[in-house]
Protein backbone atom coordinates (compact mmCIF):
# COMPACT_ATOMS: atom_id res chain seq x y z
CA UNK A 1 0.00 0.00 0.00
CA UNK A 2 1.43 3.41 -0.96
CA UNK A 3 1.89 6.24 1.52
CA UNK A 4 -1.07 8.15 0.11
CA UNK A 5 -3.34 5.13 0.35
CA UNK A 6 -2.23 4.48 3.93
CA UNK A 7 -3.01 8.06 4.90
CA UNK A 8 -6.37 7.95 3.11
CA UNK A 9 -7.26 4.65 4.73
CA UNK A 10 -6.25 5.78 8.22
CA UNK A 11 -8.29 8.97 7.95
CA UNK A 12 -11.38 7.20 6.65
CA UNK A 13 -11.21 4.49 9.29
CA UNK A 14 -10.94 7.05 12.06
CA UNK A 15 -13.90 8.99 10.74
CA UNK A 16 -15.98 5.87 10.20
CA UNK A 17 -15.33 4.44 13.64
CA UNK A 18 -16.12 7.75 15.31
CA UNK A 19 -19.35 8.06 13.35
CA UNK A 20 -20.48 4.49 13.88
CA UNK A 21 -19.74 4.47 17.59
CA UNK A 22 -21.65 7.73 18.11
CA UNK A 23 -24.82 6.42 16.46
CA UNK A 24 -27.45 5.19 18.94
CA UNK A 25 -28.21 1.54 18.40
CA UNK A 26 -31.76 0.34 18.77
CA UNK A 27 -31.57 -2.88 16.81
CA UNK A 28 -31.33 -5.26 19.76
CA UNK A 29 -33.22 -3.40 22.49
CA UNK A 30 -36.39 -5.37 21.76
CA UNK A 31 -34.76 -8.80 21.89
CA UNK A 32 -35.25 -11.30 24.69
CA UNK A 33 -31.46 -11.41 24.95
CA UNK A 34 -31.09 -7.64 24.61
CA UNK A 35 -29.89 -5.30 27.36
CA UNK A 36 -33.35 -3.96 28.26
CA UNK A 37 -34.94 -7.36 28.88
CA UNK A 38 -31.82 -8.53 30.71
CA UNK A 39 -32.11 -5.53 33.02
CA UNK A 40 -35.81 -6.26 33.55
CA UNK A 41 -35.03 -9.88 34.40
CA UNK A 42 -32.37 -8.80 36.88
CA UNK A 43 -34.76 -6.31 38.49
CA UNK A 44 -37.36 -9.03 39.06
CA UNK A 45 -34.76 -11.48 40.36
CA UNK A 46 -33.42 -8.94 42.85
CA UNK A 47 -36.76 -7.33 43.65
CA UNK A 48 -35.19 -3.96 42.87
CA UNK A 49 -36.82 -1.83 40.19
CA UNK A 50 -33.85 0.56 40.12
CA UNK A 51 -31.94 -2.02 38.09
CA UNK A 52 -34.20 -1.41 35.10
CA UNK A 53 -35.15 2.24 35.61
CA UNK A 54 -31.93 3.37 33.93
CA UNK A 55 -33.42 2.22 30.63
CA UNK A 56 -36.35 4.65 30.73
CA UNK A 57 -36.73 8.39 31.06
CA UNK A 58 -37.46 9.93 34.43
CA UNK A 59 -40.88 11.00 33.13
CA UNK A 60 -41.72 7.32 32.49
CA UNK A 61 -40.49 6.06 35.83
CA UNK A 62 -43.92 5.94 37.47
CA UNK A 63 -45.32 3.66 34.77
CA UNK A 64 -42.45 1.22 35.17
CA UNK A 65 -42.70 1.23 38.97
CA UNK A 66 -46.41 0.45 38.76
CA UNK A 67 -45.84 -2.35 36.24
CA UNK A 68 -43.07 -3.74 38.44
CA UNK A 69 -45.30 -3.94 41.52
CA UNK A 70 -48.11 -5.56 39.53
CA UNK A 71 -45.70 -8.10 38.13
CA UNK A 72 -44.31 -9.02 41.55
CA UNK A 73 -47.81 -9.56 42.91
CA UNK A 74 -49.00 -11.69 40.00
CA UNK A 75 -45.82 -13.78 39.92
CA UNK A 76 -46.75 -15.28 43.29
CA UNK A 77 -49.96 -16.86 42.02
CA UNK A 78 -48.64 -19.75 39.90
CA UNK A 79 -45.85 -20.71 37.51
CA UNK A 80 -48.09 -19.86 34.56
CA UNK A 81 -49.01 -16.51 36.08
CA UNK A 82 -45.32 -15.84 36.70
CA UNK A 83 -44.49 -16.43 33.03
CA UNK A 84 -47.30 -14.17 31.82
CA UNK A 85 -46.45 -11.46 34.34
CA UNK A 86 -42.80 -11.48 33.36
CA UNK A 87 -43.67 -11.15 29.68
CA UNK A 88 -46.00 -8.25 30.48
CA UNK A 89 -43.22 -6.49 32.37
CA UNK A 90 -40.63 -7.07 29.65
CA UNK A 91 -43.00 -5.75 26.99
CA UNK A 92 -43.85 -2.70 29.09
CA UNK A 93 -40.23 -1.75 29.69
CA UNK A 94 -39.17 -2.28 26.08
CA UNK A 95 -42.21 -0.41 24.73
CA UNK A 96 -41.56 2.59 26.99
CA UNK A 97 -37.84 2.55 26.21
CA UNK A 98 -38.37 2.48 22.46
CA UNK A 99 -41.11 5.12 22.57
CA UNK A 100 -38.64 7.49 24.24
CA UNK A 101 -36.25 6.90 21.34
CA UNK A 102 -39.00 7.59 18.84
CA UNK A 103 -39.00 3.95 17.71
CA UNK A 104 -42.10 1.75 17.38
CA UNK A 105 -42.60 -1.34 19.53
CA UNK A 106 -43.48 -4.35 17.39
CA UNK A 107 -43.25 -7.02 20.06
CA UNK A 108 -40.44 -8.83 21.81
CA UNK A 109 -38.05 -10.56 19.45
CA UNK A 110 -36.62 -14.04 20.12
CA UNK A 111 -33.16 -14.52 21.52
CA UNK A 112 -30.41 -15.55 19.17
CA UNK A 113 -31.34 -13.34 16.23
CA UNK A 114 -28.64 -12.56 13.69
CA UNK A 115 -27.72 -8.97 14.50
CA UNK A 116 -24.63 -8.99 12.35
CA UNK A 117 -21.12 -8.66 13.77
CA UNK A 118 -21.10 -5.02 14.90
CA UNK A 119 -23.62 -5.00 17.77
CA UNK A 120 -22.31 -8.16 19.48
CA UNK A 121 -18.76 -6.82 19.10
CA UNK A 122 -19.76 -3.50 20.66
CA UNK A 123 -21.44 -5.23 23.60
CA UNK A 124 -18.45 -7.53 24.06
CA UNK A 125 -16.09 -4.55 24.05
CA UNK A 126 -17.96 -3.03 26.99
CA UNK A 127 -18.22 -6.36 28.78
CA UNK A 128 -14.54 -7.24 28.40
CA UNK A 129 -13.25 -3.65 28.61
CA UNK A 130 -11.24 -4.39 25.48
CA UNK A 131 -12.13 -2.32 22.42
CA UNK A 132 -9.38 -3.71 20.17
CA UNK A 133 -11.49 -6.46 18.53
CA UNK A 134 -14.22 -3.92 17.79
CA UNK A 135 -11.86 -1.39 16.22
CA UNK A 136 -10.27 -4.19 14.21
CA UNK A 137 -13.67 -5.28 12.93
CA UNK A 138 -14.73 -1.79 11.94
CA UNK A 139 -11.32 -0.97 10.54
CA UNK A 140 -11.35 -4.00 8.26
CA UNK A 141 -14.84 -3.20 6.98
CA UNK A 142 -13.89 0.43 6.34
CA UNK A 143 -10.63 -0.60 4.68
CA UNK A 144 -12.45 -2.96 2.33
CA UNK A 145 -15.18 -0.47 1.44
CA UNK A 146 -12.80 2.43 0.95
CA UNK A 147 -10.17 0.65 -1.12
CA UNK A 148 -12.71 -1.07 -3.36
CA UNK A 149 -14.18 2.30 -4.33
CA UNK A 150 -10.76 3.94 -4.55
CA UNK A 151 -9.32 1.23 -6.80
CA UNK A 152 -12.33 1.33 -9.12
CA UNK A 153 -12.01 5.11 -9.47
CA UNK A 154 -8.26 4.95 -10.12
CA UNK A 155 -8.70 2.25 -12.75
CA UNK A 156 -11.54 4.08 -14.49
CA UNK A 157 -9.63 7.37 -14.44
CA UNK A 158 -7.21 6.13 -17.10
CA UNK A 159 -9.67 6.68 -19.95
CA UNK A 160 -9.02 8.30 -23.32
CA UNK A 161 -10.61 11.70 -23.82
CA UNK A 162 -12.15 10.48 -27.06
CA UNK A 163 -13.95 7.63 -25.22
CA UNK A 164 -16.94 9.42 -23.72
CA UNK A 165 -18.55 6.22 -22.44
CA UNK A 166 -15.39 5.36 -20.51
CA UNK A 167 -15.32 8.91 -19.19
CA UNK A 168 -18.85 8.56 -17.90
CA UNK A 169 -17.87 5.31 -16.23
CA UNK A 170 -15.08 7.17 -14.47
CA UNK A 171 -17.48 9.88 -13.33
CA UNK A 172 -19.74 7.21 -11.85
CA UNK A 173 -16.88 5.65 -9.88
CA UNK A 174 -15.68 9.11 -8.84
CA UNK A 175 -19.08 10.12 -7.49
CA UNK A 176 -19.45 6.81 -5.66
CA UNK A 177 -16.03 7.21 -4.02
CA UNK A 178 -16.56 10.86 -3.06
CA UNK A 179 -20.03 10.21 -1.62
CA UNK A 180 -18.64 7.32 0.43
CA UNK A 181 -15.91 9.49 1.93
CA UNK A 182 -18.31 12.40 2.42
CA UNK A 183 -20.77 10.13 4.22
CA UNK A 184 -18.08 8.97 6.64
CA UNK A 185 -17.03 12.54 7.35
CA UNK A 186 -20.59 13.73 7.93
CA UNK A 187 -21.25 10.82 10.28
CA UNK A 188 -18.27 11.86 12.39
CA UNK A 189 -18.96 15.59 12.44
CA UNK A 190 -22.73 15.79 12.80
CA UNK A 191 -24.10 16.88 16.17
CA UNK A 192 -25.04 13.87 18.28
CA UNK A 193 -28.21 14.19 20.32
CA UNK A 194 -28.69 12.62 23.73
CA UNK A 195 -30.09 9.10 24.06
CA UNK A 196 -33.58 10.49 24.48
CA UNK A 197 -34.22 13.39 22.09
CA UNK A 198 -35.41 16.57 23.74
CA UNK A 199 -38.56 18.21 22.35
CA UNK A 200 -37.86 21.27 20.24
CA UNK A 201 -38.02 24.51 22.20
CA UNK A 202 -40.39 27.18 20.97
CA UNK A 203 -38.90 30.47 19.85
CA UNK A 204 -40.15 33.77 21.26
CA UNK A 205 -42.21 34.26 18.11
CA UNK A 206 -43.99 30.93 18.69
CA UNK A 207 -44.94 31.56 22.32
Kindly state the number of beta strands: 0
C-alpha geometry: elongated
User: Structural class of the secondary structure composition?
Assistant: mainly alpha
The string of secondary-structure elements, in order, is: HHHHHHHH
The major beta sheet can be summarized as: none
Helical stretch count? Answer: 8
What fraction of residues sit in β-strands?
under 5%
**Low-pLDDT segments, ≥5 res:** 5-13, 15-26, 199-207
The count of domains is: 2
Mean pLDDT: 84
Taking the alpha carbons of the first and last residues, their distance comes to 59 Å
Q: Portion of residues in helices?
A: 55-70%
Backbone CA Rg? 24 Å
Give a structural overview:
With 207 residues, the protein is mainly α. Helix content is 65%, strand content 0%. The chain has 2 domains: 3-24 and 131-189, no CATH class; 35-100, no CATH class. It is built from 8 helices and no strands. Helix 4 (61-75) packs antiparallel against helix 5 (79-100) and helix 7 (132-157) runs antiparallel to helix 8. 16% of the residues are buried. Residues 5-13, 15-26 and 199-207 have low confidence and may be disordered.
Task: Provide a concise account of the structure shown.
The chain has 207 residues and is mostly helical. It contains eight helices and no strands. The chain has two domains: 3-24 and 131-189, no CATH class; 35-100, no CATH class.
